[in-house]
Design a protein that fits this description.
With about 220 residues, the chain is mainly α. It has one domain. It is built from 6 helices and no strands.
């Protein structure tokens, strides 16, 4: 009677487990390194572009004041000061982080600091609906007052979350000003501002569909 020889069962030793998992671990590490490099590049670009945003905000405020009539110098000065404070805060964050432009901790700290600054800038800009726009402002001008700077920030920063942080408070305050100041059209102008800003936000979502949409602003650890 023939005896069939059976090979001894292989025991999963720690060394064998490490050998089996080594290729998978290498792929995971490569994917993590790629994600980190991608995030670092995105945040470094955000850092560099923030300087343009800091310059653009007071320039846009100055142009707005140049096209408005019937407001006092005090109101214009107060509003311009509000906007300038936000611009200077962005510059402060920029100068602090630019010395380490490719260090992830410094870049992530910069992005987290930039978030509340942009939120403040949105409130500061929205205050201009009360301080810089005269009563009777037409619907087109009131809508452009809100949407114009938000579009400029999208173009300059190329960061969707940054535009959201700025757009939400500026649209809200401008809508209130449409009714309280009031602007021409009153509630209709307020509704138009909300609709236009909602359309702008939807366009930003659509434009980034299919891209890496991981937020670089509020959710950074």
């Amino acid at each position: 009677m023939a005896v069939v020889a059976r090979s001894a069962p292989q025991i999963d030793t720690p060394e064998r487990i490490r050998e089996d998992r080594q290729p998978a671990n290498a792929i995971v590490k490569l994917a993590l390194l790629h994600a980190e490099a991608e995030e670092t590049a995105r945040l470094a670009n955000l850092l560099g572009r923030s300087l343009h945003a800091a310059i653009a905000l007071p320039v846009l405020a100055f142009l707005t004041l140049g096209f408005t009539d019937g407001i006092s110098l005090t109101r214009a000065t107060v509003w311009f000061a509000f906007v300038a404070v936000g611009s200077l805060a962005i510059l402060r964050c920029y100068t602090h982080a630019i010395g380490q432009p490719f260090q992830r901790p410094a870049l992530k700290a910069f992005a987290k600091e930039l978030s509340p600054i942009l939120l403040y800038a949105g409130f500061a800009w929205g205050a201009g609906a009360f301080l810089a726009l005269p009563a009777g402002t037409n619907m087109f001008a009131a809508t452009l007052f809100v949407a114009g700077p938000a579009i400029a920030l999208v173009a300059l920063l190329r960061e969707r979350d940054a535009a959201y942080l700025f757009l939400a408070p500026s649209a809200l305050l401008s809508a209130f000003a449409s009714v309280l100041t009031p602007f021409a059209g009153g509630a209709l102008t307020a509704g138009m501002i909300i609709v236009a800003c909602g359309a702008l936000a939807a366009a930003m979502v659509y434009s980034q569909r299919g891209r890496d949409t991981r937020p670089a602003m509020l959710t950074l650890a």
